[in-house]
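Standup notes
- HV: blocked on the assembly model, inputs below
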Amino acid sequence: MSLMKRISLIFRSKANKALDRAEDPRETLDYSYQRQIEMLSKVRRGVADVATSRKRVELQVNQLEQQSQKLHDQAQKALSMGREDLAREALTRKSGLSGQISDLQAQQAQLQGEEEKLTLASQRLQAKVEAFRTKKETIKATYTAAEAQTRINEAFSGISEEMGDVGLAVQRAEDKTAQMQARAGAIDELISSGALEDVSAIGQGDDIARELDAMSKDSDVEAELAALKSGSSQPQSSLEAGEGAPASAVQEERQKEGGQA
Amino acid sequence: MIVRILGEGQWDVAEEHLTELNRLDAEVEKAIESSDEVAFANGLAALLNSVRTEGARLPDDTLHDSDLILPPADASIEEVRHMLDDEGLIPG
């Protein structure tokens, strides 16, 4: 038998089981309606749960992206100070974070998808529950117990298939969210333990940051010193310039020219 | 003929498309039997697409059971096997 036929038979047998519980068919209308309302609130809770998980992952992505940006800035700073080794180290750590970030972004997209699916499922169920409520009142007002049976069966089978569908959607979303929550928990622990923070938090415990800080302090001192010198004794600084690097550069140029000639 | 795609809704599909649906359905079944995830995903996508394009979408407030029910678009072989088990995925 075809796959689609088999699935529909399974749904129908579940629906029939639910219907067998009925004694006075009209009373069961209210009972069923109650169950529909419960299912509706279950799917809405499901939407809220998935949204919470999605927001948590979003937050983690933001935190890791900030850290990644810090490492990028550190690499740039290190390069501008001529420390390629430090820049390389910062970029290596950054690339470690990128893997985690893209993994989390994939999770975020998946959770977003589940959230949208459940939202639509809850809208569909809401429309069917409304239709059922109207039908229920009509049946109760118009028909005797015996007459009502056929009408009730029709209404029941339509709504219980939807209930099965929505129940399945909620269950699938819960399963997927549970898997991701375990991983999100691990990342949260990593973030709160400071293992990721240390890598990039400037000035606390991070070796790259410490070295860059020390270097920039040194160069700040040099710059101030140079400024002081130029302010107090102009001749000395121009003398330094004349005897310093430029002179040897000129010499090098001469040597090169000599070699080429 | 009313066809439900789980997680999406119901479509009214004309009887004349049943042959084509059955052909696509058989391919999905074959993929399940041989545990071929790629063939399964492609086959299921083709089957669902055929329902979506050939069928007319039923309004959400229709209270009608379906003649045929199809797995959700992102289902895995494993999930469909579970669904076909007696105490499977579908909540009672």
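- HV (later): unblocked. Helices of chain B lie at 18-33, 37-54, 77-84. Chain B touches chain A through 36 residues (CB under 8 Å).
- Next: hand off to the docking folks.
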